[in-house]
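Possible regression after last week's pipeline update?

I re-ran a chain I had predicted before the update to compare outputs. Posting the input and the new output here so someone can diff against the archived version. Not blocking, just want to make sure nothing changed silently.
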Amino acid sequence: MGSKGHKSAQKVARGSIRRQARNKTTRSQLKTDVAKAEKLIAAGDAAAKDAIKAAASTLDKAVNKKNIHTNAAARKKSRLMKKLNKGAGPAKAKAA
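New output (post-update):
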């Protein structure tokens, strides 16, 4: 960031950099939690349900911080649950 532009523009740019750094941690954690949940679902692990709960919590926090849109979070949670239920379907049939 150089010394070009008006003082107000420089101030906005500084704030933008701070917000970007703050938002990056939330988005990174979000991607990690969702990927972890998807990996556990694919493996058929029993811990998948807890991982989805953690991912849903992280998604809700990201929505509250306005990192992602409400509908985007709802869509991601829905798809995770759909994958879990689809993977659990045949397993329940075998157990019964």
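Follow-up from reviewer: compared with the archived run. The domain at 7-95 is CATH 1.20.58.110 (Methane Monooxygenase Hydroxylase; Chain G, domain 1). Marking as no regression found.
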